[in-house]
Design goal:
Layout: E1 12-20, E2 23-30, E3 34-38, H1 45-61, H2 64-73, H3 77-80, E4 91-97, E5 100-108, E6 114-121, E7 130-132, E8 147-148, H4 162-172, H5 174-187, E9 191-195, E10 205-206, E11 209-212, E12 218-220, H6 226-239, E13 248-252, H7 260-273, E14 278-282, H8 286-289, E15 297-303, E16 306-311, H9 314-321, H10 326-331
Parallel strand pairs: 3-14, 3-15, 7-13, 13-14
Antiparallel strand pairs: 1-2, 1-4, 4-5, 5-6, 8-10, 9-11, 11-12, 15-16
Helix pairs in contact: 1-2, 4-5, 5-6, 6-7
């Protein structure tokens, strides 16, 4: 299924970023339905996604306290400003939706904070985006713990309310729920279904349980491999009903711990979701990259100390692609942003 950008009413047309962390200046970067960001460690891939987390915090908080808390957690304004306040006097964000434009300016305070000193809003739109990080699948991972049954307004960025959200889908959106189950079965053939019920002794709590095929025994999330648990969270993110999806779906390194076939299914989920929701994903997986077109890809590199992002073009790679896949070209360093061996 090919994404039609005309259907993405809340999609970003472009974004300008100046003075934010490793990003000195990116001018009117055009964004498409699918935006797969590649690049080595230190190139600024994560900082680019961090822009959207920062904007989400500002928009959601709408208070000086929320901004101060975010800046403090990030280590202070000196850590957020590109090379500190001596090199950067202000941070600028300027981005356009089809419905309007949003410009935001921040400057440092004397106590290592930031304050809003200028901006322009031509309309109000949905800034429900959040950057999803599902890399923590350890035994202490939020996804492996119990959740509150009523914590289900949206899927949290770390998947902490995954069982509660799946329970909501099972009870109210069975078609989407069944699609998630069938998709998980494609990657984990042993998986039969989830078992989602509030705990009998603590009915306000719920945990992720599942049933193995050809068995009446139930298992909890601790019995799932890291890759399977991460895939369940991603399948839920991309296959949830449209009413719950963020306007822009942002995912940081979704490929961690996944089998090559799971990456193929994941890429299909991204393409399917991009028909109605813009997707921005950061990756270091050449195998995942193989499932996208050059125009879907943004290459992050450090140039003169600052992050730059360049979109690939099929016409420039046509000869190479006759003999190599996109991922192979990346590994051969023909795309820039070469992945660094682990």
């Amino acid at each position: 299924m090919v994404a039609n950008s005309d259907m993405l009413t809340n999609a970003l047309d472009y974004i300008t970023i100046k003075g934010f962390k490793s990003i000195a200046s990116i001018e009117k970067l055009q964004l498409k339905p699918i935006n797969v960001v590649i690049g080595p460690n230190g190139s600024g891939r994560s900082n680019f996604l961090g822009v959207f987390e920062f904007l989400h915090e500002i928009y959601e908080g709408k208070t000086a306290d929320r901004l101060r808390d975010y800046v403090t957690a990030a280590g202070g304004a000196e850590k957020i400003l590109h090379f500190g306040s001596k090199a950067t006097r202000e941070i600028v964000f300027d981005y356009s939706f089809r419905q309007g434009r949003y410009e935001l300016r921040l400057r440092p305070t004397s106590d290592d904070g930031l304050y809003l000193y200028g901006g322009r809003f031509t309309t109000v739109w949905d800034l429900s985006w959040r950057v999803y990080h599902f890399e923590d699948t350890s035994f202490s991972s939020p996804m492996r713990k119990t959740a509150k049954v009523d914590d289900n307004r949206f899927l949290r960025a770390d998947g902490a309310n995954l069982p509660a959200f799946l329970y909501l889908l099972h009870e109210k959106h069975k078609e989407s729920y069944d699609l998630i189950v069938r998709t998980v079965q494609r990657v984990a053939p042993f998986f039969e279904d989830f078992r989602l019920d509030p705990l009998q002794l603590k009915p306000d709590d719920i945990k992720l349980e599942w049933r193995h095929k050809k068995s009446d025994q139930y298992f909890d999330a601790s019995s799932l491999s890291d890759g399977t648990l991460r895939f369940i969270a991603l399948a839920t993110l991309f296959l949830q009903p449209e009413r719950y999806r963020p306007s822009v779906i942002l995912v940081d390194e979704p490929e961690l711990g996944m089998h090559p076939y799971a990456l193929e299914v994941l890429a299909a989920l991204v393409r399917q979701a991009s028909v109605t929701n813009q997707v921005i994903a950061s990756t270091q997986s050449s195998l995942l990259l193989d499932h996208f077109q050059p125009e879907d890809v943004l290459v992050a590199d450090r140039v003169d100390g600052g992050t730059q992002l360049t979109r690939l073009e099929s016409t420039q790679l046509a000869k190479w692609l006759e003999d190599y896949s996109l991922g192979q070209l990346w590994e051969k360093n023909e795309l820039g942003g070469r992945p660094v061996p682990g």
